[in-house]
Write a structure and sequence with these properties.
Glutaredoxin; 4 helices; about 120 residues
Length: about 120
């Protein structure tokens, strides 16, 4: 039990340190008229929400953010989507509770469209 607790704490510290030194960039807004693949439900005071914002910005991932404290429509959508706490991330059909970089990466990989066939591999 203690070993699992120490391992979890160690992973959390590594993630926090990596994010502190991760180059920051501005959030990438979704293109005009395009529904973003990543939807994030947050609050202003949530420290994990701040980590999530930095993580997404550093990776250049476009996302739509909804503050559930100030926007009742966002709060209703959050509850309807199964949200129980923040941050709450919706990527396609995936629902991610909390800041979990591993789950985010898996959901992003699963949601990305398959790569195009290269010109050299077409038969003809």
């Amino acid at each position: 039990m203690l070993k699992m607790l120490l391992r979890s704490a160690g992973v959390g510290v590594l993630i926090a340190v990596a994010l502190l030194y991760w180059p920051t960039g501005a959030a990438v807004p979704p293109a005009e008229g395009v529904s973003p693949l990543v939807q994030v439900y947050t609050t202003r005071s949530c420290s994990y929400c701040k980590l999530l914002r930095r993580y997404l910005a550093a990776r250049g991932i476009a996302y739509a953010e909804y503050d559930i404290e100030t926007n009742r429509t966002a709060w209703l959508a959050f509850k309807a989507s199964g949200g129980q706490g923040v941050p709450f991330v919706v990527i396609g059909a995936q629902r991610i509770h909390g800041f979990n970089p591993v789950a985010l990466e898996k959901a992003l990989d699963a949601a990305e469209p398959p790569s195009a066939v290269s010109e050299g591999s077409a038969s003809g």
